[in-house]
Design brief:
single chain; Phosphorylase Kinase, domain 1; Transferase(Phosphotransferase), domain 1; seven-stranded antiparallel sheet; CC_SR_Kinase; ATP-binding; protein serine/threonine kinase activity
Length: 341
């Protein structure tokens, strides 16, 4: 169905990235608040990132409280718009797929193509800004670890490898509880680099295992990339490494300043002289390097220390998978409510 009548009123811009703009919006019919990401399809790179995000989020058959939910995706050409469905035979959709596959624009460059992603609205900003604007809290750390462990297990269970986990890509929703307090809920977002693993050629009937799906495209953000990603041969265990970087940085409030944006970011690293080197890059050069975890005494308990060390192992086979990670986080939280013992 093609329509020229907009369903949403854009309220204000709330974020801008390298390939899209995010707005706070209102559904005209219901008045509900949503987030709308507008992506201009003016280059093959933008089209590929947008389609990856669409394919990942539309492949999920159920919802998870800690994963951003895609309400719908609208494909716009000039003044006409239509809802986009995975596997659609729409000529407009197929033109985008062809552009992504060929790496060159295959539609009329005189026409303005946009993709509009309608998703959950998160009113608390991103995880990085949220944590760095507040005093360290063991309760918050515990809650965030449990939420992220659950989210990653859900994604891997749905054969999705995120490939760009970092605090900037984790959003905060501050919904009020029945008691009146505002409890932050994390939402893993930004699936532009994600990969949906397909079934193996040996047995198409057997569901794909993300831990056996090998990828070769080195992508992500330097300070959260696993050693094997730098080499270009990795599986979903790279997501575990990225989460390990986040956990360690969150517990000990380890930060660095991004050279390009001059923004303070949560992330653990290795100091080499006057330079800081991403953990993955340092471990690729020296796999036997022993990481000083924790950097400060009594910043975490022995169980958490052991878990983070395993998550940051140079050998991906020595890292827990997402399902083991989720269980161990729950056990640690239940056994010891105080992370500093």
């Amino acid at each position: 169905m093609v329509s020229s009548q907009p369903k949403y009123d854009l309220i204000q811009e709330v974020g801008r990235g390298s390939y899209g703009v995010v707005y706070e919006a209102v559904v005209k019919r219901s008045g509900a608040r949503v987030a709308v990401k507008k992506i201009r399809c003016h280059s093959p790179e933008n089209v590929e990132l947008a389609l990856r995000e669409f394919w990942a989020l539309s492949s999920i058959q159920s919802q998870h409280p800690n994963v951003i939910h895609l309400e719908e995706c609208i494909l716009q050409r000039d003044q006409l718009a239509q809802r986009m469905n995975h596997g659609s035979s729409s000529p407009l959709y197929l033109e985008l797929v062809e552009t992504s596959l060929k790496g060159e624009i295959t539609f009329d460059p005189c026409c303005a193509y946009y993709l509009w992603f309608v998703m959950d609205f998160c009113d608390g900003g991103d995880m990085n800004a949220y944590l760095l604007s507040r005093k360290p809290s063991r309760k918050t750390n515990t809650s965030f670890m449990l939420q992220l462990g659950s989210a990653l297990a859900f994604l891997h269970r749905n054969q999705i490898i995120h490939r760009d986990l970092k605090p900037d890509n984790i959003l905060i929703s501050q919904a009020c509880t029945p008691t009146g307090s505002s409890e932050p809920t994390l939402k893993v977002a930004d699936f532009g680099l994600s990969k949906v693993c397909s079934a193996s050629g040996l047995n198409p009937e057997e569901p794909a295992s993300v831990n056996k799906c090998f990828l070769s495209t080195a992508c992500g953000t330097d300070f959260y990339m696993a050693p094997e990603v730098w080499e270009g041969h990795y599986t979903a265990k790279a997501d575990i490494f990225a989460l390990g970087v986040i956990f360690w940085a969150m517990v000990e409030r380890i930060t660095f300043v991004d050279v390009e944006t001059q923004k303070e970011l949560l992330g653990s690293y290795v100091q080499q002289g006057s330079e800081i080197v991403p953990l993955g890059e340092a471990l690729l050069e020296n796999p036997k390097m022993e990481l000083l975890i924790p950097a400060r005494k009594k910043s975490m308990n022995s169980h958490m220390k052991q878990l983070i060390r395993e998550m940051l192992s140079a050998n991906p086979q020595e890292r827990p998978d997402a399902f083991e990670l989720e269980l161990r986080l729950v056990r640690i939280a239940c056994r010891e409510l105080d992370w500093d013992t």
